[in-house]
């Protein structure tokens, strides 16, 4: 039997093996588990070990390996457990361990290594929400990068949020809605309730990070052109139209805002986060008993329809109000809860006051810089741009005022 044909696991632990680890270890390209613990293996760990890309468990503790940790470990994307304890390794702890999105346990103690051990979970955190934490991960076959939303079961309302999202997402299928891959409701290894949703990874993050790039320390260079913003706006409207008119029963999102709109590799917009969505009953049009039903204002401050503050029931018009605010924010770059909006001044009043003559004064400067409008001598181009901005911002304001 040749080494490359070995799959699943190879256990050579506690066999008093001596000498260096052969370079041929890199030919174990199908091996998932390799146990070398408790021997007297020495020398440097060969760089070829990085060829074992599907390796999940690698135990090399209790030997006499020397030298630095190979940088090629970063190629072993399948690793969930790596144990290098009780060796004679030296040098710096590779920072690229944090890029191993599946790595859950890393043991480096009792060596001569310098630096800090990366916080594996923290390195993969994409964000924290009202009911849980969102992580970046990779499916077992390594072909698909995913986002895992893990619910904090101790948080009041998290179960209803999980239930509402499952109820809504199982009914929808549209290119402008974020695709769910699977869900999990089980018991973890500590005997506690565990609930999670697995979504497709959206390579370009949230729309909010593009509208307000200065708030994202790693993406201050981000800018959306006018045409890109128009395309994204069309995608959002398309998604909302599907939820309200193309679904049976219809679905009310209840929390439409830029941070809940994700952009894929092609910069297509997908509406996500259905944690407080409402599904309306097919026959009675009453709110479905399985959807989230917390008491009080539903949604995010700045995007909530005023009628919700008056205690009225959720409806499609609430989503439409949020759409209007989102459209204005997309093209002005102003957040509805910015400090300038106080004493009766709101985002849509601010926008209306600038229509049509002062529209370029309130337009997001990133649009002009990205499209080269400021440096353009093409009067026709500038005029068309003003007309486009005026039309879409006016549409947003009219939607809000309905």
From TrEMBL:
Top-level taxon: Eukaryota
Any one Pfam family match given in the protein's UniProt record, by short name: LRR_8
All residue ranges annotated as the Protein kinase domain in the record: 120-402
Keyword tags: ATP-binding, Cell membrane, Glycoprotein, Kinase, Leucine-rich repeat, Membrane, Nucleotide-binding, Phosphoprotein, Receptor, Repeat, Serine/threonine-protein kinase, Signal, Transferase, Transmembrane, Transmembrane helix
Enzyme class, broadest EC rank: transferase
Record EC number: 2.7.11.1
Protein name stated in the entry: non-specific serine/threonine protein kinase
């Amino acid at each position: 039997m040749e080494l490359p044909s070995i799959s699943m696991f190879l256990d050579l632990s506690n066999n008093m093996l001596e000498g260096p680890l052969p370079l041929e270890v890199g030919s174990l390209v199908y091996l998932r588990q390799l146990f070398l613990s408790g021997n007297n293996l020495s020398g440097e760990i060969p760089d070829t070990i990085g060829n074992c890309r599907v390796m999940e468990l690698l135990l090399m503790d209790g030997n006499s390996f020397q030298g630095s940790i190979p940088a090629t470990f970063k190629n072993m994307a399948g690793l969930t457990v790596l144990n290098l304890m009780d060796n004679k390794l030296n040098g710096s702890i590779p920072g690229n361990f944090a890029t191993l999105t599946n790595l859950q346990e890393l043991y480096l103690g009792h060596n001569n290594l310098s630096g800090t051990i990366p916080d594996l979970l923290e390195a993969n955190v994409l964000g924290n929400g009202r009911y849980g934490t969102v992580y970046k991960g990779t499916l077992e076959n390594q072909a698909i990068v995913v986002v895992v939303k893990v619910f904090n079961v101790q948080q009041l309302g998290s179960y209803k949020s999980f239930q509402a999202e499952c109820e809504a997402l199982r009914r929808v299928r549209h290119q402008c809605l974020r695709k769910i891959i699977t869900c999990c409701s089980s018991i973890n290894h500590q005997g506690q309730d565990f609930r999670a949703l697995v979504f497709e990874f959206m390579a370009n993050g949230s729309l909010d990070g593009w509208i307000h790039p200065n708030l994202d320390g790693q993406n201050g260079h981000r800018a959306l052109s006018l045409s890109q913003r128009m395309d994204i706006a069309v995608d959002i409207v398309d998604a909302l139209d599907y939820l309200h008119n193309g679904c049976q029963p219809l679905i009310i999102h209840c929390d439409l805002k830029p941070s809940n709109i994700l952009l894929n590799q092609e910069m297509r917009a997908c509406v996500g986060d259905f944690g407080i969505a409402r599904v309306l009953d097919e026959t009675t049009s009453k709110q479905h008993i399985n959807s989230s039903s917390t008491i009080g204002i539903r949604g995010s401050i700045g995007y909530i329809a005023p009628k919700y503050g008056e205690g009225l029931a959720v409806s499609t018009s609430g989503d439409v109000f949020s759409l209007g605010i989102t459209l204005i924010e997309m093209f002005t770059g102003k957040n509805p809860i910015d400090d300038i909006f106080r004493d009766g001044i709101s985002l849509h009043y601010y926008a209306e006051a600038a229509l049509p003559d002062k529209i370029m004064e309130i337009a997001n400067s990133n649009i002009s810089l990205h499209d080269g409008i400021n440096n353009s001598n093409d009067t026709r181009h500038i005029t068309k741009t003003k007309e486009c901005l005026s039309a879409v911002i006016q549409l947003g304001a009219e939607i809000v005022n309905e």
